[in-house]
Write a structure and sequence with these properties.
There is one protein chain. With about 400 residues, the chain is α+β, with helices and mostly antiparallel strands. About 40% of the residues lie in helices and about 20% in strands. The strands form four sheets. It has a six-stranded mixed beta sheet. The protein has a six-stranded antiparallel beta sheet with strand order 10-11-12-17-14-13. The protein has a three-stranded antiparallel beta sheet with strand order 4-5-6. The longest helix is centred in the middle third of the chain and has 45 residues. About 15% of the residues have low confidence.
Amino acid sequence: MHDRLLSPGLSPVNLDHVVVGPGGAFFIDAKNWRGAITAWEGGLYQHTGSCESRHTESRHREVAKVHGMAAFMAAEAGMPVTPVICLAGQNESGFAEPQLIRGVWVVAVSRVAAWLRTQPVTLEREQVERAAVTLLTSFPSTTTDVHLLAAMGAASRAAHPRRRGRRRARAATAARSAPDARPTPVLRPRRRRRVLGRALQLLLALAFLGSGFALMKALPGLLLDGVAAATSATAPAATPRVSGTPSAPSPEGSSSSSPRQAPSTSAKASAEPAAQPVSRCFGLTAEQVGDIVGQRVHPVAERFGCSWGTRLDDPKTVVLTLQTQADYRATDFQFVSSARQQRVVYGAAYDNDDDPVTALWVATGQPIVGKEKVVAARTNTHVVVSTKDLRTTDERARWMARAIAMAVNATP
């Protein structure tokens, strides 16, 4: 499908090419850039001019734009969409093999057809046909009748109240600027800020009162738990336990705690295996992690999830962390984005020492696409790779995180 509309009836932004087949759905954005295009340390660069006056320019913004358009398509169509930049310039044949740069595949136009045919199969024939119909109707051609596009835009505004609210504001502004329009009362900026400030103060006061009542209600229980903790600290030391293995239950009658403490202790013991499941690493060994990160690593004890570092049980040397969980909250935006856009979500951040890290999130059931196979996540998976400690680039760290996620979620 060629020259499609991204938001029919709402925006003139167009999609150069949309491809659907056994390998899934692909958004292909053609770039006829001058000069030579190269990939270096996870980035895309354009080089123009002669050797004496060569000019190099980063194309990170274009890569991010194509990635965002594919994410929007995935959310609208309800299926994973792979973003692709197709180099169609005079020097396109000089670009290396297809490369994944910041979540976007960069492929020369002379190789794009063969590259599409070699993608791992993710859809059956009937699924391909249904996906094609969905993409055709969700992203119509730019030559579609204007009245039909207007109807599609109206339907989209009704389904997205926020967009409708912004358009109402613009319509009101246009109406006020008309010569025959009646004056409309407008809330002045100072008064608007004052009203918002009072509302914020009221919300903070209500939150403070609510937390105060909750603290007063829970204070007796906290004091009793503190007494219980002090009592258990004076008891004989328990046998050391390996991280990730649930502790053995104590025999009945061996505890001399009060009747109030007994239910609390048993409840914590029964909840502890759920927080620290034995299979939380799904059999992932230090040797497998070492092969992926390219150096020898050792397990580091953690209360939640699994970590590996360059020295045994030394948290300061952790280079990779893995967390799996059965569910996630609505505030976990990365998992929400992964589930809605049906893809892996990457992000760059900093750890407690302000060192750069690369993170991956993938929600249960979403595809993790490798070069030769596709793995569906069987649990919510979060992987963090220390870019600085491993002395690697963000793009290489993304590959490591994806390899860990595929190894953890692969069917045993």
